[in-house]
Amino acid sequence: MTHNQAKQTVDRVTDSPWFERAARAGYIVTGLLHLLIAYIVVRIAFGDGGSADNSGALAVFAGEPGGQVALWVAAVAFVALALWRLAEAILGGKANESGSGDDGLSGWFDRGKALALCILYFGLAWSAANFAMGSGESSGRQNASMSARLMQHTGGKVLLVIVGLVILAVGGYFVYKGVTRNFLDDLRRGGGEIVTTTGIIGYAAKGVVIGGAGVLVIVAAIRADPTKAAGMDAAVKTLAGLPAGQLLLILAAIGLAAYGVYCFVMSRWARM
To answer: Where in the numbering of this chain does the DUF1206 domain appear (predicted)?
Structure first.
């Protein structure tokens, strides 16, 4: 199949209103996950346990009546959103916006971002399915275990530093996107004051937490301490140990909840 034929096939598939609705449902589930993570962060702030990451939020789903069904629905929604991002990576622009593609440097950046999000959402779908089948595992423990294996070799430590720098860059991009209000470009209509404020707070807070996780991965590689490379959960729990840690955690929870609310806005108004 040629590149043009692939694009034509993707165009036909993304014309389906049901496919678009399923992909938009992925934003709703993402929003719910962030609200649950925010709830877990508040619990940690007041001395309770929990994993402040996607696996912790999925575990909350799994423990509720009807949680197994909800997790399968979440998995399907994540797969749909992952496939939609894959379509954007192939087309080089928004799947339902003709002429939005760009073959320049900006266009290739958008393709790379879409492909990265595709991988992320497939990962979330896999995690949701595992929790639905009762075999879900804390992503923090998985990250720490993998980091411990990598730290046994010099090349592995270098790789961890590179991964940490990439995560830090992603966090910085989120903060930049929030502060500059570039996230409004993702919407089909202009954001009102509430939407704009929610997006600024949400993107900035999520970026800070992601960036903190990246810094901890670098520190873990340098100090050979795999427990520091446990992702977002480790970053949140590091905040808890700082002066005014409880206040910092509450602020982080507010920011993550704001991002979750903004995901609901995306489910309705995102350019697709």
So the answer is: 25-91, 115-181, 201-269
d(CA 235, CA 49): 14
pLDDT tens over the chain, length 272 residues: 555 666 677 767 777 889 999 999 999 999 999 999 999 999 999 988 888 999 999 998 888 888 999 999 999 999 999 999 998 888 877 777 766 566 677 778 888 999 999 999 999 999 999 999 988 888 877 888 888 888 888 898 899 999 999 999 999 999 999 999 999 999 987 778 999 999 999 999 999 999 999 999 898 888 888 877 778 888 888 888 888 889 999 999 999 999 999 999 999 999 88
Which residue shows structure tokens 């266009």?
107
Q: Please list, residue by residue across 210-248, b when 16 or more beta carbons sit within 10 angstroms of its beta carbon and e when fewer do.
A: bbbbbbbbbbbbeeeebebbbbbbbbbbbbbeeeeeeeb
Round to whole Å and give the CA distance between 126 and 76: 10
Q: What is the pTM of this model?
A: 0.89
Angle CA 229–162–111, to nearest 5: 110
Report d(CA 47, CA 90) in Å as an integer: 46
**Under 8 Å CB-to-CB from 109, ≥6 apart: which residues?**
none
Q: Mind giving me the DSSP string for 138-202?
A: -HHHHHHHHHHHHTTSHHHHHHHHHHHHHHHHHHHHHHHHHHTTGGGGGBSS---HHHHHHHHHH
